[in-house]
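Standup, Tuesday
Yesterday: got the pipeline producing structure tokens again.
Today: sanity-check two examples.
Blockers: none.

Example 1:
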Amino acid sequence: MNLKTPAEWINHARQLEASGNVASASAALEEAREAHPGNATLANSAGNLAMKVGDFVRAERHFASARANEPGNIEFAMNQAIALQRLQRSREALGILREIETKAASLPKYGSVRGSCAREVGEPAEAAKWYDVAIAGNPQYKLALHGRARVAIERGEADALARFDRALQIAPGDADLWLGKAQALEVAGDVEGARVVAQQICEQAPGYTEALKFHSGLLLAAGEEDFTAPFRKAAAKAPQDPNIPAIHADTLAGLDHTSEAADVAAEARKRFANEPYFALLEAVHSGAAGEWARAEAIWGSLALDTPVRAVHEARHRIRSKELERADALLDSALAANPWDISTWALRGIVWRLSEDERAQWLHEQAGLVQLRPLVARDGLVEDAVAQLRELHAGSAQPLGQSLRGGTQTRGILFHRTEPLLAELHEAILATLEEYRSDLPAEDSGHPLLRHRETPWSLAGSWSVRLTGGGGGEGDYHTSHIHPQGIISSALYLVVPEAAHGEGELGWLEVGRPPPDLGLDLPPLRSIEPVEGRLALFPSTLYHGTTRFGGAEGAEAERMTVAFDVVTSNG
């Protein structure tokens, strides 16, 4: 076919797409782009088709070309921003959106895209502002209504439930909106209503794993022993979906039911014989459960060569004291992901066990672990405690976290709208800068010190309240790490008197390996909790608490705020 003009190429591609021949349509536009590399409309059309088939990398490249050839075009700029957002590059997308703000600020689509990008980079107030702009311009804008409802629940806004109801009027078949409504019902105190909605979602959309996790969490909070029943029922309805047993196993393992998790993975191996991931899961969870022979047999035959496999097998080799083999596996993993926190955490343990002098460099330099007074006005801690007690009254033990007993606040604490929490956030940032000033010198090879001079911000943030329950054995945090940050933390707001007596009850143990490794390594440092003090340490250090027992009630209360520190530039 002798096509000459860009318009002819675009029309030809549309015809191919309409006939269902998307691959040929895409190939035609690629050929047209070669013939007319400077044509912005062709580039934009190629980008739109790539977006439809989920090739966001190619789409972003085409939109960037369209924007370069026609810089003033608002549509091309917004399309590139959307593609960048899909690629989880929302900070870049925001840069483009700010460039066209003067021309595009009143457009509903612009407001919706800007709101979504702001939400993804952790700027909820900014996200709310731009979603509101979009909704003002188009009250029926589904994406903006949905995004604004999500921001409302994340910020603890009183009208979150009403916002989900409004969005459901526009899109009554949207499962994610129904899940948001269930979550809003729970926050509002209607736990039974939340369970009814969650159960309906799981029955109608058994492959929707976020709903399965939420429903399972509600059952756990209610004290039901079989709290992962929703996964089992979903797998029976959708036996061809591998995501259901994968997350079922992870959910069980997240609360120390590792043997049951291994059994779920083993059953899935039979149904998905060509999927080596389930063999990996069975090996990981059976090893954690102490079923050495079972795990060893799988590692010996596992047909999977990935960094993830290397890290998990290294963990297995640490248990058997095969330190050289573990170290080689960790080297392999770090070759692919040089700054992976989980891998560095295990490397630190291997170096300690091997009495390698690099263990001191990694975790034992003076200043890496600090307990500092919070830089705050008098009375802020007491005021924050009163506010947080109200939040904990409607919170539960979370799925898949280190907490054993007690409650943890939902969502990101410092995204909420309460002014007192904003003040606490600022106090923490000021204390962080004092921590930075007492760190060792910048070191480009160190997973934390390489970031000594870069801007920092907080990612996740939450509060934990313990009352000495834990099923009669006491509440505690099992040893764990936070692999998404560079610095981990614990701000002590309420400390029981028992913590200052014999036995180091509820103390923070930094550097003690997790229980599943079966190692007799003591913590590098045990920190006595002190009200108004902030513990800060590298995220590559495993940390947990000793058990905190005692009578239920206010006299046994222990309350903390914790967060992850990340680099502000991502």
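Example 2:
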Amino acid sequence: MRSSEYIARFLKDKGITIVFELQGGMITRLIDAIHHEKGIRIVSMHHEQGAAMAADAFGRITNKPGIALATSGPGATNLLTGIGNCYFDSVPAIFITGQVNIDEQKGELPTRQIGFQETDIVSMAKPITKGAFAIKNAIDIPAILEDAYKLSTSGRPGPVLIDVPMNIQNEEINTIDLKIYDPSPKPKSQIYTDFIEKFLIDLGSCKRPLILAGRGIRASGSIDYFREFVKKYRIPVVTSLLGFDVLPFSHKERVGFIGTYGNRWANYGLGSCDLLLVLGSRLDLRQTGSDISSFKKGKIIYHVDIDQAELNNRIKNCITLKADLLDFFIQLEKSGSCHVVPKEWIKEIEGKKQARSDIEELDDVKGINPNIFIHRLSKASNRARAFIADVGNNQMWCSQSLELSLNQLFLTSGGMGAMGYALPAAIGASITMGNVPVVAISGDGGFQINIQELQTIRRNNLPIKMVILNNHCLGMIRQFQDSYFESCYQSTVWGYDSPDFSKVALAYGIESFSVDKPEEIETGIHKLWENPARPFLLEVSINIYTNVSPKIMFGNPINKMEPLVD
């Protein structure tokens, strides 16, 4: 068979059911082969960044590699933001790019380019991939594909890139002569007895235990084990941005979201606990604040992660364990130990929440309170299988106030912080789960970055419920300018605007509605879900000076958030 046919067959044999792409000259053979292979849905996007972010959603949901294809030159470079997104957020993905024929490549010559659109995408992608491969011979394809798949999904997951020249795509591979690729067996589970015993001893003597849950729990496929662990030990749980959906909103042990814009009471718990168990989370600046000594004070920190580089990185002298969380939970489950968390600690955290809830943080806001809106949207969106948040103020309002049910997912761009993520990722999420309803929440700035994917939604008739929290500016940076640049609003308010989104939706054949006043919220949400099987765009007008509150100002401890309150 031809190399392109082999690649198509490989993807199908690995259980890949969807690929995302934007057609181009150097991948026509690959897309044609996938089309004729049957059994794989080809989703054509309108920008390669959109294809990469849709594949990102597939990877987050299935823990199999999301697949995106792009042509050489600008097609390949347009993937890079999506590739970086997968790399920083530990998402398995394989990106396949077409390349000019071998005899059109400059090789070691000093000239900049020989073939039209010839671009060394492998060198560009290496810093943000687990591996980047330039195919030079067709016979190498089977082994490289297997390596790429294993690399993408093993250890800490991430993206891999494979660059395939056009002439090699058309070369025959003699399957009789192929060496059977024998991937190395999965490493045997390590024994973590000492770590677990020490943790349980300290847990038994502490008064204020807490768990910080990150994306590593879902990435390791251990979400059910984690929930059983929490059920057994009843330790309060705070979550990182990417670990937001490990527990439903109503779970008794769920405290809230932590970090720079976290729930005030969750940050209080993180700052005040005497024992912290960190599971699959990085302890980065946004989670701990810049005052490291204050963060560490008075607590023992246990940290479990698959990536050795994340252990004792910023926060030193933790008791660490490099482990697959699935193995860790299985062994912990066998410990037979149990522990009763002091009721005073639970009441203390709950008291902080009752003293100042998330909807009270913006009690003087003019017009629509975004935290209140997010709560009401959540309650009305039980048919949604996932919420996908863009980057900006909308992301933080979602993280502060979304009420997820047991089986609802939360997807967003974390480490990369890529505006424009929500729309294409919602496409990937909806299609991956069988064209199901999902809610995509964006700001007016982020929505415009990949607005072209409205056509993908319309063409595929995807039941994506799009919510634009339109604060008529780039709100998070505008708030930053208030704090540090004397309210000089260059390029956030001055020199910035957005279109009439209802008219834009109409141009794409999508129904819409605009909400300008608090009393219109219920009508807007009702229209959003009036026909669950159809796409709909709801624009919600937020006052331009509405901030995200509370916020840790740089240099302050994690539990000292502004505005300051008693």
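Quick observation on example 2: The radius of gyration is 24 Å. The chain has a mean pLDDT of 94.
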